[in-house]
Design brief:
Layout: H1 2-26, E1 37-47, E2 60-71, E3 76-92, E4 101-118, E5 122-139, E6 150-167, E7 170-181, E8 188-198
Antiparallel strand pairs: 1-2, 1-8, 2-3, 3-4, 4-5, 5-6, 6-7, 7-8
Length: 199
C-alpha cells in the first residue's frame, strides 16, 4: 500500500511539473548557431472589397500562402509574404442570365517588418508591409467577362498578431492584416490567417 501511495504521489508531482518545465524551456534563450531564417505557411480567409471602397465583410473566400524571412533581432523580423485567394460571387454578371456570377482571384505579394511589442513565450506583434495586389475577375458560368485578366495595384498592409512558441524551431501565428490599396478611393482587403513558423 505504501509503495502504491509513493507511485501515485510521484505521478501526480510529475504531471504537475511537466507543463512548468516545458514552459521554462520555451522561454530559454536559443542555442548558439541557431538558424535565423524562417518559413511560415498559413491558411485563412480573405474579404474581397475590390469592387467598392471602404471596409466590408460580405464577400469572403479561402486564402493560402507562405511568409518567409529572417530574424533581425530579438524582437524584429524581416519578412516577405505571398498568398492567393479565390472569392466567389463578388458581383452579379452583366449578362442577363441570373446564373452567371463573377468570381475574384487575388494574388498578394508584399514585404516588410514585424515587431514583437509584447514579448514572451506567447507574444503580441505589430507589422507593416508594402507591395502589390493582383486581382482578376471571371464569370464562373459561361464565357469570361470582358475585363478578365489580372489588374495590379500597390498596397500597404498594417497588421497585428499573436505568436505562441511550440518548440525550439516552431511557433504558431494568428494574424490579421488589412491590405489597403494606394489608389483613390482606398479599397480595403482584410485577411485573417493562422500559420506555423519553422526555423
Amino acid at each position: 500500500m505504501k509503495q502504491l501511495t509513493r507511485w501515485v504521489l510521484a505521478l501526480t508531482l510529475g504531471a504537475t511539473a511537466l507543463p512548468g518545465t516545458a514552459r521554462a524551456q520555451s522561454i530559454l534563450p536559443p542555442p548558439r548557431g541557431e538558424n535565423r531564417l524562417f518559413m511560415e505557411p498559413y491558411a485563412g480567409i480573405l474579404f474581397d472589397n475590390g469592387a467598392r471602397s471602404g471596409l466590408g465583410f460580405e464577400h469572403v473566400g479561402p486564402l493560402f500562402g507562405v511568409r518567409f524571412g529572417a530574424l533581425a533581432g530579438d524582437r524584429v523580423r524581416l519578412l516577405g509574404d505571398v498568398g492567393f485567394a479565390k472569392v466567389n460571387d463578388v458581383a452579379p454578371s452583366l449578362r442577363s442570365e441570373p446564373r452567371h456570377q463573377i468570381d475574384a482571384q487575388n494574388f498578394l505579394a508584399t514585404g516588410g517588418v514585424e515587431v514583437e511589442v509584447v514579448p514572451g513565450a506567447t507574444s503580441g506583434t505589430l507589422s507593416l508591409q508594402a507591395g502589390g495586389l493582383w486581382r482578376s475577375l471571371d464569370a464562373r458560368h459561361g464565357a469570361p467577362i470582358a475585363n478578365a485578366g489580372y489588374r495590379s495595384q500597390g498596397v500597404i498592409a498594417p497588421g497585428f498578431g499573436v505568436r505562441s512558441t511550440l518548440t525550439w524551431r516552431s511557433e504558431l501565428k494568428l494574424a490579421f492584416q488589412d491590405y489597403i490599396a494606394l489608389d483613390s478611393p482606398a479599397r480595403h482587403t482584410p485577411v485573417l490567417a493562422l500559420g506555423i513558423s519553422f526555423r
